[in-house]
């Protein structure tokens, strides 16, 4: 880790080259997680673009560190209601 650039902004090509050199055996899923973590880290440390206060998205885990205030869009929110088991006779008889 000491040999890697510190406090340095890297292009995508430079970052991928470092991953190829030092983490060549990393599987594609882990590589994706490393790239996502690097992107989120850069996003939070940069000062040219303000960090969003609120984000409406699905509940994928990669969005959880972008901002403290997440909201599910209504399409993605609705899928959680399908998991609810109704005990009211009216709704049980409807389905």
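Sequence proposed for the structure above (95 residues):
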């Amino acid at each position: 880790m000491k040999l890697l650039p510190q406090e340095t902004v890297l292009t995508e090509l430079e970052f991928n080259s470092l991953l190829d050199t030092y983490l060549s055996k990393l599987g594609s899923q882990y590589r994706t997680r490393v790239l996502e973590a690097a992107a989120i880290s850069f996003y939070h440390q940069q000062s040219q673009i303000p960090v969003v206060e609120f984000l409406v998205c699905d509940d994928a885990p990669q969005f959880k560190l972008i901002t403290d205030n997440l909201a599910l869009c209504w399409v993605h929110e609705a899928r959680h209601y399908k998991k609810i088991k109704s005990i009211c006779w009216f709704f049980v008889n409807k389905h």
